Amino acid sequence: MKVYFLKRFLELIPIFFAISIIIFVIMNSMPGDPLLQMRMQNPRAMANDPQRMKELREYYRLDDPLPLKYFTWLKSVITGDLGYSSMYKTPVIDLIASRLPNTLILTITAWLIGLAVALPIGILSAVKKYSFFDYTTTVFAFIGISLPSFWFALIAIIIFSVNLKWLPVSGMATYGVTGFWNVFADRLRYLILPAAVLGLVQVASWVRYIRTSLLEVLDQDYVRTAYAKGVPDRKVIIKHALKNAMIPIITIIALDIPYFFGGALIIETVFSWPGMGRLMYQAVISSDYNLAISCLMFLAIITLISNLIADLLYVLVDPRIRMGRKGA
């Protein structure tokens, strides 16, 4: 197991560097530069001072060749220096450290909501194949797959925040709330709507994958044999069928973890949630290269880690993979 983990981890290192090169080149190919944002913020101070502009270009190394820029940036990243944000005038690592917990709270909650809803519905749809329940969930799944997340978010705001006034429209907390349980309840009220929207958008596709994977296993001979021996339905489904159907289910659920971080960009923007997604959006539109590249690299790292988690879960779930690896 340790050797397999180390091998898979080492395979991700060249992929990481390849991704970093692609992201760095794309971001540096975009029109504008950090000085554009500075000139927009203070046009009078910057427009008539060519010497100051030259000093700033040298400071940010904007005129260096692209390969030199990349290796300078990579050296800084390896030493833990992600640079300064030209928009916030703050070290990038401090910005990420302040926003990352908020995004983790949102995405983990959304992932758990999606899994808690999709797993039982997908199992019931497979067990009750071609029933009214199966047809109903199929229709709603196709509708859910077709709905854009931002549209779903706006509809949820109109219904639950504007009309019913049950939940806050945007933000993360109410100013002035004190006491542990009061703060907890207040944060929970702000979390429910964005987390539910982010999680439920993904439920539709998960339900279809779970149903399809389980149906393939339910048609196998060993499942029919278990039913013929009088094994209770619940035991057959959970112990025999679902366990052997987990490989494709793990694939889609684990590899969709980056979707939640990427989807948080839209959801956090709509709900004004102060997280990494909103930070990345503001960095890109403001040509804040250091911040934008760091946010995109964070998303790439999450994707690589998700792949690694999926590979390790395969080994834990399916003993055939362990046996095949030992035989190799």
From TrEMBL:
InterPro entries: BPD_transp_1_N (IPR045621), MetI-like (IPR000515), MetI-like_sf (IPR035906). The keyword DNA repair does not apply. CDD domains: TM_PBP2 (cd06261). The keyword Acetylation does not apply. It is found in: Cell membrane. The chain crosses the membrane at residues 12-30, 104-127, 139-162, 188-207, 245-271, 291-317. Belongs to the binding-protein-dependent transport system permease family. This is Oligopeptide transport system permease protein AppB. It comes from Mesotoga infera. The gene is appB.
